[in-house]
Amino acid sequence: MTQVEAPAWTPMTADERARFDRDGFLVVPGVLSPSEIDIARGAILGAFERAAQPGGHGLSATGSLHQLSAVTTLPELAFLLDHPVAFRYIWSLLGWNVHVYHSHIDVHPQIHEKQKDWWHWHQDGGRQNREIETDPRPMMSVKLAYWLSDVSEPGRGNFTVLPGSHKTNWLPGPPTRGVPWPQPEGAIQITANPGDVVVFDRRLWHARSDNYSPITRVGAFFGYTYRWIAGRDETADLPNRPEWAGFSGVQRQLLGHAGDGSGDHAWGHFPQTTPLYGVLREQGLLDSSIPALIP
């Protein structure tokens, strides 16, 4: 299965680009259809149930699941890699020489006991935020958060962000993460319905809030970056699995496939042989006013 439903590809709008540049994120409602929600949610909850079994992946102390390498874990989720309604933000912002370098599925049931104070606020990218010296640091990557449960009210493990903080290298915080500390001024919990997507700049300061509600939090997260940045996902074995034959060229690119003899290269030296470049070219979407989309 390469796509559950396939609407036409279109670029993000100028208004969306302006809001993303201002706030560091966008909430896009109604991206997934009911059938797509059912497929993704069912697959993730199935993984959650298997992890809870003896010999399974195992759950956290609070009974939650945080499983890396989403498509390696669940090939059924491959359609989320390049879902046209959500993926348009990725190539509009980063261009065509991209792949998924980090992904995960998450299931967080209700927590019944108050958790100890912990400073969860961070920017994505790990060592990038220590070793890149510019101020502000470059965007480098963009993440899609697919919501597969009802987080339309605060207190359900909502994604919490500080709007506009993506151009701030450092956020005042406690001397150590376990010291009680107030939330950053201006922080908000994002509310969303099943099928909604949050698109966010990796530099956006954000945190996951605890879920004390009876509604289990379910989501899938895909981080996209340039293909010359090494991936964290474990995808090397995917080409040897039967599901690989059903993945599209773009999906294979996003899972790290390159160097197949056609000239394609992760550094983007040969755009004519890069699957996503070809699709965007065929659909007349290579806007030369956006540097990342220029060959």
Overview of the structural elements:
The chain is α+β, with helices and mostly antiparallel strands. It has a single domain (about 15-285), classed as q2cbj1_9rhob like domain (Jelly Rolls, Sandwich). The chain has eight helices and nine strands. The chain has helices at about 15-25, 35-50, 70-75, 80, 85-95, 130, 250-255, 275-280; strands at about 25-30, 65-70, 100-110, 140-145, 160, 190, 195-200, 205-210, 215-225. The strands form two sheets. The chain has a six-stranded antiparallel β-sheet. The chain is globular, with a radius of gyration of 19 Å.
List keywords for this structure.
9 strands; six-stranded antiparallel sheet; 8 helices; three-stranded antiparallel sheet; Phytyl_CoA_dOase-like; dioxygenase; dioxygenase activity; Ectoine dioxygenase; alpha+beta; Jelly Rolls; 295 residues; 17% strand; globular; oxidoreductase
Concise account of the structure shown:
With 295 residues, this protein is of the alpha+beta class. Helix content is 22%, strand content 17%.
Topology:
Blueprint: H1 14-23, E1 25-28, H2 34-52, E2 65-68, H3 70-73, H4 78-81, H5 84-94, E3 98-108, H6 128-131, E4 141-147, E5 159-161, E6 188-189, E7 197-201, E8 206-208, E9 217-226, H7 249-254, H8 275-282
Antiparallel strand pairs: 1-7, 2-3, 3-9, 4-7, 4-9, 5-6, 5-8
Quaternary structure state of the chains depicted: single chain
Helix content: 10-25%
Q: If you compute it from the alpha carbons, what radius of gyration comes out, rounded to the nearest whole angstrom? A: 19 Å
Query: CATH homologous superfamily?
Result: q2cbj1_9rhob like domain
CATH level 1 name: Mainly Beta
Strand content of the residues, in percent?
15-25%
**Strands of the largest sheet, in order across it?**
1-7-4-9-3-2
Q: What class would the helix/strand composition place it in? A: alpha+beta
State the CATH topology: Jelly Rolls
Mean pLDDT: 94
Overall morphology: globular
How many strand segments? Answer: 9
CA distance, first residue to last residue: 30 Å
Protein name: Ectoine dioxygenase
InterPro entries: Phytyl_CoA_dOase-like
Organism: Paractinoplanes deccanensis
GO molecular function: dioxygenase activity
